[in-house]
Amino acid sequence: MSRVHNFSAGPCTLPLEILEETQKEFLDFAGNGMSIIEDSHRGSSYMKIQQDALASFRRLADVPDDFAILFLQGGATLQFAQTAMNLLSSDEKAGYVNTGVWGQKALEDASRVANIYEAWSGKDKGFTTTPDDNEIELQQDTKWLHITSNETIGGIRFGNMPEVDVPLVADMSSDFLSRKIDWEKFDLVYGGAQKNLGPAGLAIVIARRETLNKHGRDLPTYLDYQFHDKSDSLGNTPPMFSIYVMGKVLNWMESNGGVDEFERRADIRSSLLYDVIDNSEGWYSSPVEAKSRSLMNVIFHLPDETLEKQFIEEAANIDLINLKGHRNVGGVRASLYNAMPIESVETLTDFMKNFSQNNR
Ligand SMILES: *Cc1c(COP(=O)(O)O)cnc(C)c1O
Known about the structure:
This protein has 360 residues and is of the alpha/beta class. It has helices at 16-25, 44-61, 75-87, 101-113, 225-230, 240-255, 258-278, 305-317, 342-359, and strands at residues 5-6, 67-72, 93-98, 115-121, 142-148, 150-151, 156-157, 168-171, 186-192, 203-208, 297-300, 320-321, 332-335. It has two domains: 17-255, 3-Layer(aba) Sandwich (Aspartate Aminotransferase, domain 2), CATH 3.40.640; 258-359, Alpha-Beta Complex (Aspartate Aminotransferase, domain 1), CATH 3.90.1150.
């Protein structure tokens, strides 16, 4: 078997031991004579998986008791509108920080269902930085402020979460559980699972419970967070396979030192790359302002597009794959999520040093 170094922006690399364990259990889960994906979501085997995953997530992210944890479908994309529907009544409003592709999508979808406005935009600076607190323009009577903690395409992140006078609502899809969350600042955090936590098909929402019954709207069943909170996210058939595999990833994270350790690893992985970029005398360059550099998605350019194409091809020849930058940004993007081995990043930095020597 040969496994590649997969720098995909999502879905992501998962720990090999978890893929193997999943494979081993697939045909006959726990001696039940059937796969977990064939079993009832109300059966004891699956119920335990769901409860364990909820408990494990709560421990890892240190989620206080007065916050609900919901496992939902529709990805982070559905949350762009669902958050606004559930957290704003028809006469309330929220501000949105527009840091790039994902911040913009959140803003657009939320504006279809609620009264929201843009509190800051990074457009003039080509979405290469995050705002300082005093640049965020909050209107009077703003209920909360939406941010994208890590912009997966632009390769920027909030090094510190904004200090503002209203609670934050955050899309943490691409840095979920790679950094501690100070829950006092947040009313809600959401993200798709497929970047840092498991297979696609699952979004996780963590919400302050007291904010959930105030919208006064007649929402369809699935779109109302309270429906999921009341049933431990078993109100309808959940994405069982995704939750089952994510549960294994969460256990693996806990036994490897928890969020502190994954924060440390994220720092090591990204520093390895930024150091090569910064020590290349400008041959490799990062378009991102230093204070906003992402630890998850490292973006860089070479002197020209021909060299970038050659770089990506030669990297693929030695199994360093999915390094092509997003079409909006170009260049090279290395995504370094929680399960990315540090050795894979070292293989990439060795390649970068050789490539620049050979092509200068
Ligand atoms: C990938 C991504 C999304 C979209 O997630 P889906 O689960 O595909 O809907 C949203 N926000 C951010 C920051 C992302 O990285």
